[in-house]
Fold these 3 entries.
Entry 1:
Amino acid sequence: MAIDPDRAIFAQRELSWQEALDDTVMAEQPLARSIELESVLKASGAAFLAAEILNDNDEVSQISSFDVDGVEAITAASFAGSPPRFDAHFTGLGSEDGIVLRTIEVTVDYNENSTSIIGKGQV
């Protein structure tokens, strides 16, 4: 397969790197992960994407799992626009100490008539 001139120019472009750092996150969580994303974005697009990823991941979060009775707690329509969020109140926390969890996984068990939800939220 031959490479057309536009593809050849694109393939020869020099790669560039864009970083978005938040030193306060690393100070609080020295084992915080570094996110690398390979792309062919121009510098302005890469800077925007890096800032978006940092904004989505700059809080200390925890993963929580809970079960809900019934199989219609979350439907496919619940994910329209963005994943569902829950104001979760766990044993040991006061009623005013709810944690807003963003849904990251849902498992429906029709045999047990229950839904398991895994959510991510700020500690």
Entry 2:
Amino acid sequence: MLFVAFLFAAYSGAVQWLSGILRIIPAPTEHWATIIGDVAWPIMIAWLVVRFRQSLRRIIEILIIRFKRDDIDIGNVLKVTRNSTLVPLQADSDDASSDASVTERLLEYISDSANVPIVAAWLNQQGRDALDLREFITLTEYADLRQHAYQQLIEGGA
């Protein structure tokens, strides 16, 4: 009997302590609901990631294996095949003469539509009138030609 009385006292003490905390919290308002909503989503996403981390890891491993073996076509915008050659840009290179820097500067130069005919005329002077501007900017085989165009058109002030 003494044990039951002790449990009842502990239970009622815990209830009083919890009710005291709940009385301190303001009544639910629109702002309170916004705060709870803003906090609940990140907590829920974090809990899901932690809870299903093994499954998520396996799904990512499967996707990586599939990307290595299969052709990828994303919305007819990006197509990567097993035989595609991808050339990574060196982001840590501050060398202004690197192909990535030259390509970026040429893209900035032709972003002004008035400069597109200037680049096309320069390509015609170089005997490359059949070369598409898109191929000139993107293909690695034209890196030297891009370097010459950069030196003559942008650095030369033409």
Entry 3:
Amino acid sequence: MKRRIPLRKRLLVRLLFVSALIAVCSVAATAWLAVTTTTSALKEEQGQDLAADNSILARLSGYAATHPGWADVQRTVRDLAARTGRRIALTTADRSLVADSAPRGTPLPPRPAATVDPLRTDTYTETGAQLSGIDPRVVGPYRVTAKERAGLDALAAKRRRCYERFGVETTVVRAPSGRPVLSAPEGTDTSYASEQCADGQLNTPAPTEQKALNDLSELARPCLGRAGLNLGGPLFFTFDPSGKDPLGGGSPMSKYANPTSRLGQVAQGCVLSARRTQLEPYVAPVAELFLGIGDQNPSRFDMSAANKAKVVGAAGLVLAVTVAVTAVVAVRLSRPLRALTEAAQQPPELHVRVPVTTRDETGILAEAFNDLAERRERLEAQRKAMVSDIAHELRSPLTNIRGWLEVVRDGVVDPDPALLASLHEESLVLQRVIDDLQDLAAADAGTLRVHREPLRAGDLLDQVAAAHRVAAGTAGVALRTEADGTAWLDADPVRMRQALGNLVTNALRHTPSDGTVSLAAHRDGQEVVLTVTDTGTGIAPEDLPHVFDRFWRAEKSRSRRTGGSGLGLPIVRHLVAAHGGTVGATSERGAGAVFTLRLPAAAPPGEAP
């Protein structure tokens, strides 16, 4: 009987589950890596792009702050494009091309990335930022001469030595105008040293700077007058070396230096406007900056070392988990297979069994192997018993024949008709055993042939009864037949008489005197049912499954004369199977036995099937 395996226990389902688990882990790890590394790379790429864009803008703003025009900017644009891998283009406000790193005729990006205007955008004071105001690199008329710079350097060195006496380390930084400026490390307290070292000389405007400040005053005066800030006297500013705050204490403008007051804001606006007017001739015109992807730009995605480490680590983890899961599943699956292999390699005579530890396909395979081993052990025992039985069946008639022949040869007994009849009977017994063995061998080899022809069931029963009428009369057993006239078989008459004859012989042997053996036939749908019924001693229930086994006898102590050879019923089974039918036996102890043959029915001759 085919055993049904629970779905969750099936080997295919388990393998699919493991594969799906590994696939899910791999996909999840891959997705996590992709999201993590891509996000990190995009952030890094965006940061790099933004830094590159700011550096381009700062460089071009510096160029505009130090040049009165864009005449020689093409070389700077190409150098920046080669270094950053970006396409860089400059145009005027009306989109007239000033400079471009791309070949002539290449369309501009849809919108500008920034406006290059050093008079309104400061890209110098804070790296990477765009502050509102004038770029400190726009110095114009405030650039000191070489002679003035030398004098200022001497004053800066003197101031630096003074600071050192108070334990303050400073460095000299050159401002865009050429003026030296002292710079102390961040967080250093320089207030006391500044008071002690102040000489009023280093921060005093040089003649060139003073002239520029005076010009700035004249430019700012009309705006201040329109705002009602006409001071009436000469206008001057406290000099700021950075150039960012021209207003300071100590001047007539000092009361307007607070940028949080309304007047302060107005004053700051006027001065800033005047300063732009003053510096405008020294800077390049306002330009629009266009940025795009350059020809030399390689792949935009370059995995960093940290992301590579993440990929390698996650891939290694997934690989380790996969190997571990696969190893566990492989061990669980291969363990029963190894046990089966080891059991199969044992000597056959040991009939080794294997433990059944699972309920899946391998467990069923182990059960089938154990069943096979059990059947093989049983068949081996039957083979040994069959060899012994065959030897016994052949030895008995041969011994009788040999004994009588030796007695006759020695002249002890004369070969009279009775002796010859006895020897003939023994030879018939021997011939019958050999014929039965030959029939069984042909059935086992698949060479048992039947010659079918239309056969009336009633005629078949009459022929078998006639052949056994004398034996039945000798045993004192009544032999009866009953047949349905419509029952026809497509069968081999000789083989069917042999099969029914074996059943009748077996029934006569087990039926006492005054008993009855009945042969019957009737049609049952597409089959013809043949029965042989006796009123003998019957068969025990535990013996019924073995009645068609070779050389099997219910009573092992019975002699060959009373028990037969044990080959008749197996031959019946093979003959019926050769006709496509089945045979079975039912019995009750002490109430006789019924052997039933079911064979395919055939249409009578002359009728359509």
